C-alpha cells in the first residue's frame, strides 16, 4: 500500500509469512531492545525463541496474521492481529506487537499498518471489535490508536514492574464497522 504523503520513500504494507522469519526476528528484537517498556515480552525472552518457532507464528491463518511495513524494501514496522479462539469471544480481535523502528518513525508506517489491520479484520466474518493494550509510557502509540478510532475503556494500575519502574496499562477498543 503506497502512501502518497511519502515523496522520498516507497512505503508498502503486506502480510508476513514464514519466509520473513529472519528479518521479522531482527526487527522485533530491535524494537524490544530500543523500547523495552513498551512490550511485555523482553528482548532476552524473544531472542531465546528458535527461528522455526518465529516462522510458525508468521504463518497466516483465519485467526492470526502479521503485517510488515516496508520502506524502500526494508522491513521497518510490525503489527499482529489475533482473533480470540473460544466461540464466545470469536467476535473480538486483538492487536499486538505493534512497533516501528525509530529510524522510520514519523513517516506513516504506523498509520499504514493500522489501516491494513482494520481492512484485514473486516474480512473475518463475525468480528465486531478490535482490542489492544498500551503502556502509559507510550504516548505516541496511544495517539496512533486514537487516530484510528480506539478509545480507552480502562486502565490497570501497577500492571507491569520492569527495571524499577511501575507501569500502568491502558486497555483500548474500537467497534468494527464493515
From TrEMBL:
Organism per entry: Deinococcus deserti (strain DSM 17065 / CIP 109153 / LMG 22923 / VCD115)
Residues spanning the membrane: none
Full protein name: Putative acetyltransferase
Domain N-acetyltransferase per the UniProt entry, residue ranges: 11-177
Keywords linked to the UniProt accession: Acyltransferase, Transferase
Any one GO molecular-function label of the UniProt entry: acyltransferase activity, transferring groups other than amino-acyl groups
Record has Transmembrane helix as a keyword: no
Entries under InterPro entries matching the protein: Acyl_CoA_acyltransferase, Bact_Acetyltransf, GNAT_dom
Amino acid at each position: 500500500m503506497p502512501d502518497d504523503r511519502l515523496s522520498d520513500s516507497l512505503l508498502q504494507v503486506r502480510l508476513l509469512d514464514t519466509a520473513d522469519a529472519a528479518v521479522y526476528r531482527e526487527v522485533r528484537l530491535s524494537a524490544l531492545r530500543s523500547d523495552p517498556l513498551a512490550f511485555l515480552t523482553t528482548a532476552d525472552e524473544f531472542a531465546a525463541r528458535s527461528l522455526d518457532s518465529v516462522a510458525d507464528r508468521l504463518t497466516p491463518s483465519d485467526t492470526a496474521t502479521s503485517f510488515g511495513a516496508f520502506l524502500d524494501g526494508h522491513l521497518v514496522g510490525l503489527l499482529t492481529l489475533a482473533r480470540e479462539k473460544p466461540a464466545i469471544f470469536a467476535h473480538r480481535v486483538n492487536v499486538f506487537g505493534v512497533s516501528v523502528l525509530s529510524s522510520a518513525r514519523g513517516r506513516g508506517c504506523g498509520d499504514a499498518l493500522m489501516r491494513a489491520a482494520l481492512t484485514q479484520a473486516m474480512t473475518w466474518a463475525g468480528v465486531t471489535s478490535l482490542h489492544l493494550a498500551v503502556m502509559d509510557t507510550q504516548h505516541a502509540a496511544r495517539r496512533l490508536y486514537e487516530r484510528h478510532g480506539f478509545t480507552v475503556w480502562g486502565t490497570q494500575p501497577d500492571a507491569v514492574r520492569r527495571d524499577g519502574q511501575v507501569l500502568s496499562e491502558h486497555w483500548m477498543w474500537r467497534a468494527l464497522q464493515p
